[in-house]
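Lecture 7 notes. Example A: sequence first, then its C-alpha cells.
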Amino acid sequence: MEEQVILVDVNDRELGVAGKLRAHREGALHRAVSVFLFDEEGRFLLQQRAPSKYHSGGLWSNTCCGHPRPQEEESAAASRRLYEELGVRCAIGPAFRFVYRALVAPDLLEYEYDHVFFGRYGGEPTPNPDEVADWRWVDSAHLRAEVRDRPARYSPWFVTCFEQVASLARELAF
C-alpha cells in the first residue's frame, strides 16, 4: 500500500489523507517534518539525498525530512525519519513551522506545511543507502555562501528555510 500523507489547510488543520505520490502530483498541501542537527561547534549535519529518491535525488539537504503517518505526532515522525535515514537517535525539539511550494520534478509539486525540529548530535551517522548518498558537517558561513552561490545543489525546501534556520540556530546557541 502506498504511503499516506496528511492533507492540511494553511493553518495545519487536518483535512484527510492521500497517497504520497498523488498528493505530490496534485500539489495538495500536506504535513511534513524536517530535522536539523548541529554539533558542539554549531555545524550543520547535511545529507545528500540518494539518487534513487522519487524526487530531488542527488541534492544536498537538511539532516532528514519526511511525512508523519496518519495518527503519528510530528515529533515521533521526525525521530523515526532520523533513525530510518541516518541511524541516529538523539533528542530533538520543535523550532518553527513554515509553508513552501516548489516544483521538484516535471510532474511533482511539493506543497508542504513543514514542522522543523532542531537537535544536537556529536556522533557519526550510519546512513541508509536507499535514502542517503553522502553526509557532511558544514559551518554556517560556508553553507550560507554555498546556498547563495549554488542553490541548485540543494533541495528547494532547504534553500527556502535556510536563513530562518541559521538565524534561529544562532539565537538558540546551537
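Example B, a different protein, same format:
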Amino acid sequence: MARHEQDREDLMREATALVRRVEVALPDQAGTCVIGFRRDGAASVFFGADPVFQFNTQGELRRAFIDGKLVKAELGKLVWLERVRTDTTVQLLRRDFTKTERDAFLAAAQAYLNKLGQYFAKEIDVVSQVPQAEMVSSDVERWLASLADPIAIAERPNVGA
C-alpha cells in the first residue's frame, strides 16, 4: 500500500506489481474501483483510496485500509495499525480487533465485494485495463464469485500464504 494516502491516485499507472489490473466505473458512486492480480494470482481491490482489500493466493484477506486505518492479518486474526504522526516520526500503534469489530469489519468488506460482484455480473464500464488485449474483468468476476463468505482471514499479511 502507498506510504501516504494521497499516493493512491493513479493505481493503473503505478501499481506495476499488479500485472493484470482493471479500472471500472461504479454505477452508483462518483469514483472508480481498481482490481488487480499479482503474477501469483493474489488480488487487491481499491475502492478509490479507501477502502482497500488485499488477498493472498488462497483468497484470504491479508491486509486492508479502511476509514484511514491499516488492517493486517496475524495468525488468522485481524489487527488495527493506526498511524500516529509527529513532526519527525510516524509510529504504528497496534491493537487487536475485538470480536464485535472483526465481525463488523468482515461484514462491511463482504458487502463491498458482494456489491462489486453484482456490478460485474451485469454490464460494467471498463475505464482502462492492463494488459489491453486481455479481458481482465472476466477474471475479476470469477475471482469475486470464488471468495469465501464470510471472508477468510490469512495467517500472515504477506502475499505468499
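Note on Example B: The CA atoms of residues 117 and 142 lie 9 Å apart. The chain has three helices and nine strands.
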